[in-house]
Amino acid sequence: MSTANSNTEPGAHTKSAWVQTVEIPAPSLENNTAFVERVCSQLEKTMDGMKISVDLEVLKALPKILRTGEGAMDCMLFGQGGEAALVGVAPKKAGPLPGLAVDLGTTRVVLRLVDMRTGQILKESSFDNPQGRIGPDVLARIHYAEQEGGLEELQSLIAQGISQEGARLAAACGLSPKDVYCVAAAGNTAMTHLLLGADPYWIIREPYTPMVNSPGFLKCRDIGLDFAKSARVYVFPNVGSYFGGDLLAGILSSDMVCKEDVSMLVDVGTNAEVVVGNKDWLMACAGAAGPALEGGVTAMGMLAGPGAIEKVRIDPQTREFAFQTIGGIKPVGICGSGVIDLAAQLFLAGMIDLRGKLVPTACEGRLIELDEIPALIIVSEEDSANGRALLFSQADLDSLVRSKAAMYTILRTITNTVGLAFTDLAEFNIAGTFGSYIDPVSAITIGMIPDLPLSTYKALGNTSLEGATQVLLQREAVGFVREIREKITYMELNVNQEFMNRFSAAKFIPHTNPALFPSVKIPQ
Amino acid sequence: MSTANSNTEPGAHTKSAWVQTVEIPAPSLENNTAFVERVCSQLEKTMDGMKISVDLEVLKALPKILRTGEGAMDCMLFGQGGEAALVGVAPKKAGPLPGLAVDLGTTRVVLRLVDMRTGQILKESSFDNPQGRIGPDVLARIHYAEQEGGLEELQSLIAQGISQEGARLAAACGLSPKDVYCVAAAGNTAMTHLLLGADPYWIIREPYTPMVNSPGFLKCRDIGLDFAKSARVYVFPNVGSYFGGDLLAGILSSDMVCKEDVSMLVDVGTNAEVVVGNKDWLMACAGAAGPALEGGVTAMGMLAGPGAIEKVRIDPQTREFAFQTIGGIKPVGICGSGVIDLAAQLFLAGMIDLRGKLVPTACEGRLIELDEIPALIIVSEEDSANGRALLFSQADLDSLVRSKAAMYTILRTITNTVGLAFTDLAEFNIAGTFGSYIDPVSAITIGMIPDLPLSTYKALGNTSLEGATQVLLQREAVGFVREIREKITYMELNVNQEFMNRFSAAKFIPHTNPALFPSVKIPQ
């Protein structure tokens, strides 16, 4: 599975880029229209009649540029809906004009610096969301925001984090953070609220109403982002409390709204977000898929990082285990994709049964009891990186089975609602790092995703970052986001009897009805 | 002559005011659109489809207001061109929602606090433009701005001045400067540039190109105005370097663009700015009328203030002088309107002749020589406030005559250009404090303004302040300003032979051709 980044290839966006080179005719006694209005009128011509406003800082910088640039200069614009602000000016072709794309993750924040003139990716980096100090998840942070000064603290943590890492990233490219005029950030609804300093209280309370849906363009310094004084940040809109800008960015980057065929996009995490549709319609839903898929619950679970088991193979005859870890070092733990691989291989080796229970006879030699719960030794003390055995208990397994069953049920429910079968899907896109690592064969084996031809599956990588990048490089992108937002129908997952019946059926491996998974060779 | 303020009468503006009371329906599971978007959608309904954006600070303030206001709240908006920003929210009818009108004078700055909810004027105050410390006039300040840090210093002086006096004014009304959400400022092109921190260098150099024509709406804090965090300031546009926002504000407040009949508007100062037109067309010009009209040149000249002679009567028989001073105290000096009165009375008493020369025989007893120039004792040492005689020299008189001749010539040239006679003017509006004090009879007597029926003359008072007030109270006003700006034809005064001939003819009192001033009884 390869990461789709065809949208950000150098030069692909120059046609409708935010950077425009204009020549300003010198004023005369016959035409002494003010300098600012001369610049605007030139820009309006080159930008298909977009209405241009000029930032105060640019107004102040203009005299120098007009002198040094001899009438020609590069203009950096940013905006939406037929309107753009002139946020920066530079002498013609003086160097890269960087824009910063931000994937505002709850756990990890990823930054990407792109040259808005050429479309080239300059550099990427990532850092732990500093709000993690206050609470590991959305819920904890929202509760913290209810305290006096809590929201301000959370806001300032993330703004400082982005500013500092952004400055480092710029420096690594020989640039200053003051050279960054445009920022685009995509995150879930709660993270977006915390970035803005908007009250997230109602996001987690009935009727789950965000404070704001479409924050649009803001001045960076108004939210404490320390880039150019005139820099603007585009914050992706949300559809609702449980359907955020990260997913809209994902839909944008998946291109599914440009296609005749129906595709599906799944963002897997604690919350599974699912979109199905094509150029004419979009249906979305989100539901708790369980934290097991993030590798966050099992004792041996960890985020993808050095020493994380990402691939497991078990010889069905000898039941010998073989691992592949990130970085090729001794195992430290197991990441989400590794857990799915592990479960699939345990099942194919007959070590867990159709109901997801460890089979004592088949697990012999590796089975112990931990607080009266059976557990499987995956990596022995000697073979692990830290001298502690890595264990996978029946409880971990139950949790994974619930998660995969929930995921499958959500997928089944949304396709059912729009009257489609899984086989009607031309593409099944999986977003996120998770999507880049999981082996679709294993995910199919445990019945987490439908049994479609492997060519249907596509890992899109970091679609939040990709969508944010598109906003920086294509003038049309923000309009597309608005269209996507308006087009999308959000379906509340009704956890009714029908859903529960589907869920119960999906709690088998791969499913109560094995005919749904013809490719899975169930061990006899 | 009365000050026209019919436009700012309480309640006159409630229909299209910037303050709107809206009720926000509570969200439900069926409609959980975000709070901000609920507010916007209500506002768009009450504001004839205006596109509403919400300031970040308002977004943060909303939760509290939504709780205390029980769904109903007052919204403060400000904007143009079908777009407005929601800059403030307050509980329903909680008190005045103040806006600040600013007359950004080169010498004096006048502030007016109005309640944007009711249209009521709360209070006014004024202060010396603190940039006066650096240079008394536009020219000196523009030169100072060329020095390193000079522009920043001038910018910060005026911003601090307005902030401090604005805070005092608010306090005097029992309000905080943080309660001020909307500011409107009108000044000449140079003062506007200095308020923005925009380079004024080219304003005084060929081809006299301003840096910006239409600054529009800015965040107050971006230019150092210390009001509500989200407060916006509307800065009146200019037509060119010598035709500023103060005059556009004047045209707005004069209502001349709403009338079928042709009117004239004159703003008298060092620079005379003249507009003629009606609802279909507007022609404008500006020219140096000479500082004599401001009372700034004669040794006894002063700005209108306590002790300034504002009225002079000379008995044509006894040639005894009678004065009226501002505040009714002993004379300290003479203001611009007093000088005109003085010259007219001297002429009617036969003490100056048709050529504007002191008549020694008629001036007997009051005439002395000062540096070999004849001078008239207007107030003796004993009768003056400071024990020094107030003198009016032949040089002062010459200067006044040149000024009045320039003024009349400018008026004649512009009416001539549009093919009108003075008698075609339905109204002759005089803007500024000067206009409120001069006696049109005296101004006609010396031939400074045309000999029209007295009912034609109207003193409009501080039209900059009035225009700025209209922007705060009427949503349509900014659109009118734009229309005025687009409609206006600016005529460069061509100081050619024809102009010089007219000027020479106007250097007589009242004029070489006395038939032009039938009402003036020329002493034999």
Task: List the SSEs and their pairings.
The structure is a homodimer of 524-residue chains.
Chain A: E1 19-23, H1 35-46, E2 51-54, H2 56-68, E3 72-80, E4 83-91, E5 98-104, E6 108-115, E7 121-128, H3 138-145, H4 150-172, E8 182-187, H5 189-196, E9 216-219, E10 232-235, H6 245-254, E11 263-267, E12 271-277, E13 282-288, E14 308-314, E15 321-325, E16 333-334, H7 336-348, H8 360-363, E17 367-370, E18 373-379, E19 390-393, H9 394-417, E20 427-431, H10 432-437, H11 440-445, E21 457-461, H12 463-473, H13 477-487, E22 488-490, H14 497-506
Parallel strand pairs in A: 2-4, 5-8, 8-10, 11-20, 13-22, 14-16, 20-21
Antiparallel strand pairs in A: 1-3, 3-4, 5-6, 6-7, 9-10, 11-12, 12-13, 14-15, 17-18, 18-19
Helix pairs in contact in A: 3-4, 6-12, 6-13, 9-14
Provide the number of structural domains of chain A. Answer: 4
Task: Determine the N-to-C terminus distance of chain A.
Answer: 31 Å
Largest sheet of chain A: 6 strands, mixed
Radius of gyration of chain A: 25 Å
- Taking pLDDT < 50 over at least 5 consecutive residues as the criterion, the unreliable ranges of chain A are 1-14
CATH-defined topology of the largest domain in chain A: Nucleotidyltransferase, domain 5
Total strands of chain A: the figure is: 22
